[in-house]
Amino acid sequence: MRRAHHPQLGDITLTEVMAALSDPIRVGLVRVLADGHERGWGELRAPVAKSTLSHHLRVLRDAGLTRTRQEGTRCFVVLRREEVQERFPGLLDVVLAAAEADDVGRQVGVKAARTPA
């Protein structure tokens, strides 16, 4: 796998961020990641094919909203909340509040942890 590109803080544009947040699945991913925990791609649950989920994660990364880390064959993603807050103060808080109020992205979540038998 080639190394993921992450835009520098000054290169993140409002139009790219807003375009990335124009899809309910991507808003749902941001809602899930807003807790600050890094998640493995395999932990994420969305009503789309794995390839489509990968596309959504790439759009968020390319817009500067998330950071992806590869460890062996696994990929992990985290919301760049503090960096986005520095670049666009209050934007994510407003988007997350509106998404919560309108229930946007509710179909995206985290897979339940398996319990030992």
Name the quaternary structure: single chain
Quantity of strands, as a count: 5
Classify the helix fraction into a percent range: 40-55%
Q: How many whole angstroms does the radius of gyration measure? A: 14 Å
Query: In CATH's first tier, which class of one domain applies?
Result: Mainly Alpha
Distinct helical segment count: 5
Average residue-wise pLDDT = 92
Series of secondary-structure elements, N-terminal to C-terminal: HHEEHEEHHE
Please tell me the CATH architecture of one domain by its name: Orthogonal Bundle
pLDDT < 50 stretches: none
Strand content: 15-25%
How many strands, which pairing sense, and closed or not: the largest β-sheet?
3 strands, antiparallel
Could you tell me how far the N terminus lies from the C terminus, measured between alpha carbons in angstroms?
35 Å
Query: CATH topology of one domain, which one?
Result: Arc Repressor Mutant, subunit A
CATH superfamily caption of one domain: Winged helix-like DNA-binding domain superfamily/Winged helix DNA-binding domain
The largest beta-sheet arranges its strands as: 1-4-3
Helix-and-strand structural type? alpha+beta
What best-fitting shape do the alpha-carbon axes yield?
A: globular
Keywords: DNA-binding, Transcription, Transcription regulation
Protein name: Metalloregulator ArsR/SmtB family transcription factor
InterPro entries: ArsR-like_HTH (IPR011991), HTH_ArsR_DNA-bd_dom (IPR001845), HTH_MetalResp_TranReg (IPR051081), WH-like_DNA-bd_sf (IPR036388), WH_DNA-bd_sf (IPR036390)
GO molecular function: DNA binding; DNA-binding transcription factor activity
